[in-house]
From TrEMBL:
EC nos: 2.5.1.61
Summary of subunit composition and partner proteins: Monomer.
Domain Porphobilinogen deaminase N-terminal as annotated: residue spans: 4-219
Pfam families: Porphobil_deam, Porphobil_deamC
Protein name listed in UniProt: Hydroxymethylbilane synthase
UniProt keyword list: Porphyrin biosynthesis, Transferase
Domain Porphobilinogen deaminase C-terminal stretches: 254-349
A cellular component term, taken from the record's GO annotations: cytoplasm
The organism of origin for this protein: Micrococcus terreus
Lineage: Bacteria, Bacillati, Actinomycetota, Actinomycetes, Micrococcales
C-alpha cells in the first residue's frame, strides 16, 4: 500500500465530504489517496426513500466495495447507515460533527412560523414530515427526491447555477414554498445562503447520527481479496489506521453511539419517524474535575404528527477522557453510551413506540 482508495457516492455532497476526509487522512498519514465513485441502489432507483427501504440503500454498495477490496474505506453520512454493523467491517473513525440541525430553505426568506397557511413543503423524510405537521398541521407535505440542487430548484429564488452540480433535467422547478434539508450538507457545499431558518432541536430533533460522518473499513488484520497483505504493506496500513484513530472525535463518537443504540433497540430503519440527539454536557457552575453527563433526547411520532412521544435520560461519565493513549476506544464508556440509548428506547417502547410499526 503506497496510498489508499476511498469509496464514495457520486453526488456533489458525497464527493465534497469524502474529499475533505480523504485529504485530512492523507495529511495525517503521509499517504496519497484516490476517490472511487460507487453507484448505489439509491442513486439508480426512483421512488420515495421510504418505499426503497430508507436511506440505508445508499450504504450497501459502498460496504460491498470495502469488503471485496475495491476500496480501502468508505465515507458515509452516518445517518444513512443501518444500525446493524456487518461482519468484516468496522467504523474506524467518526470525525467531529457538523451542525446537527435541519434547515428550512423557503422562498422570500420565510421562517417556519411565517410560511402561509397551506404552504407546500418538500422532503423525503418521514421524520421531518411528522415533526413539521406536529407544529404546523396546515402544511402540505410533498415527497421529493434528487440532489441538493434539484431540491432547491423547486423553491422560487433558490435555484443554484453550478455546472459541476446541476439540478436534474426535467425535474419540477419553482413549485414549492420550501424544502427541508440538513444544515450539515448545505454548509459542506458552501450553500448556507439557502437556509432561511436552522430549526432548533426543540422543534425538530435530527435523525440519529445527523451531521456526522462514518469512515468504515475492514479490520486492519483482515485479508483483502486481491489486495495483498505483505509485510511491506503493513507499515502503510498502520499509518492509515493511526490516521483514522487520530481523525476520530471522541465526543462525537460517544453521541452517535447513544443515538444508534436507541435506533438499534427500536429496530427502526433509517426512514422511520424517529429523532434522537445526544450531547455531552457539564453544569455551568461545575469545575473541571466534575464529571460530564451524556444526555440523550428522543422522539417517536406518527406520520401525521398527531402523536408524539418524547423521552430523555442521561448518564454520568465518570471519566471524561474516552480514549486510551494508544487511540483505541474506551469500551466501558462507549458501552455506557450505547446502554443509554437502549434505556431511552425501552421507555419509548413502554409508552407506545408501536407507532414505528405503522410507519
Amino acid at each position: 500500500m503506497t496510498g489508499f482508495r476511498v469509496g464514495t457516492r457520486g453526488s456533489a455532497l458525497a464527493t465534497t465530504q469524502t474529499t475533505t476526509a480523504a485529504q485530512a487522512l492523507s495529511e495525517m498519514s503521509g499517504l496519497e489517496h484516490e476517490l472511487v465513485i460507487i453507484r448505489t441502489e439509491g442513486d439508480v432507483r426512483t421512488g420515495s426513500l421510504a418505499q426503497l427501504g430508507g436511506t440505508g440503500v445508499f450504504a450497501s454498495a459502498l460496504r460491498a466495495a470495502v469488503l471485496d477490496g475495491r476500496v480501502d474505506l468508505a465515507v458515509h453520512s452516518l445517518k444513512d447507515l443501518p444500525s446493524a454493523q456487518p461482519e468484516g467491517l468496522v467504523i474506524a473513525s467518526v470525525p467531529e460533527r457538523a451542525d446537527v440541525r435541519d434547515a428550512l430553505c423557503a422562498r422570500d426568506g420565510l421562517t417556519l412560523a411565517e410560511l402561509p397557511e397551506g404552504a407546500k413543503i418538500g422532503t423525503g423524510s418521514p421524520r421531518r414530515v411528522a415533526q413539521l405537521l406536529a407544529v404546523r398541521p396546515d402544511l402540505q407535505m410533498v415527497d421529493i427526491r434528487g440532489n441538493v440542487q434539484t431540491r432547491l430548484a423547486r423553491v422560487p429564488g433558490l435555484e443554484h447555477h453550478d455546472d459541476n452540480a446541476p439540478a436534474a433535467a426535467g425535474s419540477p422547478r419553482g413549485d414549492l414554498d420550501a424544502v427541508v434539508l440538513a444544515c450539515a450538507g448545505l454548509d459542506r457545499l458552501g450553500m448556507g445562503w439557502a437556509i432561511t431558518e436552522r430549526l432548533a432541536p426543540t422543534v425538530m430533533l435530527p435523525a440519529p447520527g445527523q451531521g456526522a460522518l462514518a469512515l468504515e473499513t475492514r479490520p486492519v488484520t483482515a485479508e483483502v481479496p486481491g489486495a495483498g497483505g505483505s509485510a511491506a504493506d503493513q507499515p502503510a496500513a498502520d499509518r492509515l489506521a493511526r490516521a483514522l484513530a487520530e481523525y476520530d472525535d471522541p465526543a462525537t463518537r460517544l453521541q452517535v453511539t447513544a443515538e444508534r443504540g436507541l435506533m438499534e433497540r427500536l429496530e427502526a430503519g433509517c426512514a422511520a419517524p424517529l429523532g434522537a440527539l445526544a450531547r455531552v454536557e457539564r453544569p455551568e457552575d461545575a469545575d473541571e474535575q466534575s464529571p460530564a453527563r451524556l444526555v440523550l433526547h428522543a422522539v417517536v411520532a406518527s406520520l401525521d404528527g398527531t402523536r408524539m412521544l418524547r423521552k430523555h435520560a442521561s448518564v454520568e461519565l465518570a471519566e471524561v477522557r474516552i480514549r486510551h493513549e494508544d487511540g483505541t476506544p474506551d469500551v466501558g464508556v462507549l458501552s455506557a453510551a450505547r446502554q443509554l440509548g437502549v434505556d431511552v428506547a425501552e421507555q419509548l417502547l413502554a409508552d407506545g413506540a408501536d407507532l414505528l410499526d405503522r410507519a
